[in-house]
């Protein structure tokens, strides 16, 4: 009975509806258990997004043979006979004393670059609907992606609005990059439920690149800062490139997408090992563009931030390897620096790094003037999303507000004339 009490009302309604549909004349199978349906379906990019694609989902029953099926969209109408079935990896998580859940994942391999596929997940007969994704082209072709800062509060109520605007603004986005603090309390499964309610079907089609924020860790008022570990719900929900430093797998990672090297750092963890790893990745990087994402800010705009450790460790590396763009969250305000090198705006044709701090939720902090001499624009009390258009010679970054109005824009040129 306790088990039943944990089934959300919408599932009970869904089960009741299925009973009505499937108990007509001639239907002899036992109706499906309502709590076996796949939910929280998320695409993630792999290190080679032109050849493979990861998908992760959750169910409240393991099912007989959890799997995912994939078919080129050109064969969608004959999917039942053309689909390839891939058996899932499963991990069991205890949510509370009365509820265990099963996170399942599959990496589709040997895909064709630049090809649209349909896929579904689950197990017979509890399959999801078919969703779509497109593999990267494997060449340095132009593409667009969406970037969000902290959502964190009122995620279902207001974050959902921003997500819908992003879909309308960039219906062909290659992926969505989140700078962390996607929710307020990452160890609480109810907050993940709120996040997935807010993003709805979107991560089934727009792969997520998540950056771990401090709110994906336990509250430091409950667990001392140096004893905190990322929520045990993080890794089960995602299937991310496993190419970070030992101990930081799937919270620090890199991948390459159509001429851009994306590097995700974890500012909640000590930076020394990450700096060494970052040097190695950057020294081997042959991509046209390099974009780093980290939740914590390099040049903070919040009046409450005074620690310069990240700045001291990372800026010399960003300078040495001419990182183009650094995407951050955490300070609950907006900031775009001028192109910087050695903590100063560059002059003439010198190459610099642009640092963006974004906020995509309704939580706002006062903005300090500490680094005003480095800033091209700052803003407060704005819920923003960002589109980033990349081609071989330019990177165009645009900030949109809740009224869908562009409120800031910068174009970074690869080859300075
Ligand atoms: Fe934060
Ligand atoms: Fe935050």
Automatic annotation (TrEMBL):
InterPro entries: Calcineurin-like_PHP, Metallo-depent_PP-like, PAPs_N, Purple_acid_Pase-like_N. It holds the Pfam family Pur_ac_phosph_N. Residues 38-135 form the Purple acid phosphatase N-terminal domain. One of its GO terms (molecular function) is metal ion binding. SUPFAM superfamilies: Metallo-dependent phosphatases, Purple acid phosphatase, N-terminal domain. Residues 143-334 form the Calcineurin-like phosphoesterase domain. Residues 1-28 form the signal peptide. It comes from the Bacteria. This is Putative phosphohydrolase. It comes from Desulfotignum phosphitoxidans DSM 13687.
């Amino acid at each position: 009975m306790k088990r039943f009490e944990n089934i959300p009302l919408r599932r009970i309604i869904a089960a009741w509806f299925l009973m009505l549909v499937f108990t007509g004349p001639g239907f002899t199978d036992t109706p499906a258990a309502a709590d076996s349906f796949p939910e929280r379906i998320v695409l993630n990019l792999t290190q080679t997004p032109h050849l493979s694609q990861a998908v992760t989902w959750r169910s409240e029953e393991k099912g007989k043979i959890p799997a995912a099926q994939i078919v080129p969209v050109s064969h969608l109408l004959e999917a039942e006979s053309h689909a390839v079935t891939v058996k899932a990896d499963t991990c069991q998580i205890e949510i509370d004393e009365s509820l265990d859940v099963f996170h399942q994942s599959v990496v589709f391999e040997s895909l064709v670059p630049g090809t649209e596929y349909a896929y579904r997940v689950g197990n017979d007969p509890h399959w999801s609907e078919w969703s779509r994704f497109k593999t990267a082209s494997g060449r340095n072709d132009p593409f667009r992606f969406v970037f969000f800062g902290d959502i964190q509060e009122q995620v279902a109520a207001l974050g959902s609005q921003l997500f819908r605007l992003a879909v309308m603004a960039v219906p062909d986005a290659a992926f969505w990059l989140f700078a962390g603090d996607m929710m307020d309390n990452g160890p609480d499964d109810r907050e993940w439920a709120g996040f997935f309610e807010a993003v709805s079907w979107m991560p089934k089609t727009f792969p997520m690149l998540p950056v771990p924020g401090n709110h994906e860790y336990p509250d430091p008022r409950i667990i001392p800062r140096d004893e905190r570990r990322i929520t045990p719900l993080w890794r089960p929900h995602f299937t991310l490139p496993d190419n970070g430093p030992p101990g930081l797998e799937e919270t620090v990672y890199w991948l390459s997408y159509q001429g851009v090297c994306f590097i995700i750092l974890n500012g909640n963890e000590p930076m020394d090992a990450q700096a060494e790893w970052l040097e190695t990745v950057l020294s081997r990087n042959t991509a046209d563009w390099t974009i780093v994402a980290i939740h914590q800010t390099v040049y903070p705009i919040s009046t409450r931030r005074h620690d310069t450790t990240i700045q001291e460790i990372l800026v010399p590396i960003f300078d040495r390897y001419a990182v183009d763009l650094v995407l951050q969250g955490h300070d609950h305000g907006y900031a775009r620096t001028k192109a910087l090198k050695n903590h100063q705006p560059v002059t003439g044709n010198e190459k610099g790094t642009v640092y963006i701090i974004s906020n995509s939720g309704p939580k706002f902090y006062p903005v300090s003037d500490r680094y005003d001499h480095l800033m091209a624009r700052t803003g407060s009390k704005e819920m923003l999303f960002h589109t980033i258009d990349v081609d071989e010679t330019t990177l165009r970054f645009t900030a949109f507000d809740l009224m869908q109005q562009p409120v800031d824009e910068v174009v970074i040129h690869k080859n300075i004339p």
